[in-house]
Specification:
The protein is mainly alpha-helical. The chain contains 14 helices and two strands, in the order H-E-H-H-H-H-H-H-H-H-H-H-H-H-H-E. The longest helix is centred in the middle third of the chain and has 30 residues, at 125-154. The two termini are 20 Å apart. The model has no long low-confidence stretch (mean pLDDT 90).
């Protein structure tokens, strides 16, 4: 084949995977993506509503950070999402697709609520919180271990298995809600230990969500160190890259899978403990609030770096709070606010493509037309 034919058949666009991107460059690409998203949203906002986009963006900031109460509610939701994301990090780094964080959060919440109901009148709050923490951790760990055992022993599909475990956890939660309902016939548990506040997180520095922040930040730092510098973290990375390579390196893949999912489920169980003891003080099928699925986006975008998870969790919670505010302040329906959130997420996810792949266009040659 002649050189002219080869040139003629050369594709217009060529994509190649990047070997690695410096942190400053990846942050720059994400910043460009976010800026483009805001520009596109501004155009659409004005075209549909004739509103000043700057006022809409200011309302979003007000919705998330407008008052001291809103700031702390936003922080509470950020650390909850971050906690679940931290839990998903080791499983996803191992390429074990844990879609069951919702269920793991719920069983952790059930364990915490049970302690508050049955032990709240006999055990002081501090030791009660320790018991709640440990039992929630164990409950979430067991819930995460079940699909891991089936994956390790019989190569079960972990995506479907963990997803189905969510529905079992929801039904289990419904059972306990009916068992503990207060008042009778309300089909809700109600606020547990309203008077004694047994099992509630104590206020620190005058803020009731301070302990939430302390626990989750500690988990995030420990998970970063665990994945980056520990032997087990190295094993997780090797298994995620190639199970055959891991076996060649004398790594027990089955043990790593089970151990890692136990850790993943345990941290999600702690998120359930935080939700019950440090936020809602009750248990319901909506305790996880869909954050188990949102956390998948956080874990994946951060590439399992728990410090980057903090920024992404903040952005997603900000978008959620902002969408609610602009819908109420400007009398917009939910579709407009959700559309804005969707556009921003689309550009953020799209920026990941340019971080992972290099795009090149075919160059024209001088004298090609001669």
């Amino acid at each position: 084949m002649s050189k002219k034919k080869l040139a003629h058949h050369e594709p217009l666009v060529r994509m190649s995977k990047r070997d690695g991107v410096p942190l400053w460059k990846s942050l720059g690409i994400r910043l460009i993506g976010l800026t483009l998203a805001l520009v596109v949203c501004a155009v659409i906002i004005y075209a549909l509503t004739k509103l000043n986009p700057l006022k809409v963006y200011a309302a979003m900031v007000k919705g998330a950070f407008g008052t001291n109460k809103r700031i702390w509610v936003t922080i509470r939701d950020i650390v909850m999402l971050l906690c679940i994301s931290v839990g998903l990090a080791p499983a996803f780094k191992m390429r074990f697709w844990n879609i069951g964080a919702e269920g793991q959060v719920l069983v952790g919440g059930i364990a915490a609520a049970a302690c508050m109901i049955y032990l709240g009148k006999t055990i002081p709050t501090l030791p009660l919180l320790v018991i709640m923490f440990v039992l929630s951790l164990i409950a979430g760990g067991i819930w995460g271990t079940i699909p891991a055992v089936f994956k390790a022993r019989w190569n079960a599909n972990e995506t479907l298995f963990t997803l189905m475990m969510n529905y079992i956890a929801i039904q289990l939660t419904s059972y306990f809600v009916a068992k503990w309902e207060n008042p009778f016939g309300s089909n809700t548990v109600g606020i547990i230990n309203t008077t004694s506040k047994a099992g509630w997180f104590p206020a620190i520095g005058g803020q009731m969500y301070t302990l939430n922040v302390i626990i989750v930040l500690a988990l995030a730092v420990m998970m970063f160190l665990y994945l980056r510098y520990s032997k087990q973290g190295y094993e997780i990375a090797v298994v995620g890259e190639s199970e055959n390579t891991a076996r060649y390196a004398a790594i027990n893949v089955k043990s790593v899978v089970i151990r890692t999912m136990a850790i993943s489920g345990a941290i999600c169980g702690i998120a359930g403990f935080i939700a019950v003891a440090g936020a809602s003080h009750t248990i319901s099928t909506s305790t996880a609030g869909g954050q188990g699925f949102t956390a998948i986006i956080v874990a994946w975008l951060s590439r399992f770096n728990t410090f980057i998870m903090m920024a992404i969790s903040t952005l997603l919670v900000f978008l959620e709070k902002g969408a609610v505010e602009i819908a109420s302040q400007f009398d917009l329906n939910d579709f407009v606010s959700e559309m804005i959130t969707g556009i921003i997420l689309f550009f953020i996810l799209g920026s990941e493509f340019f971080i992972n792949y290099k795009v090149r266009f075919r160059r024209g040659k001088k004298g090609a037309g001669k």
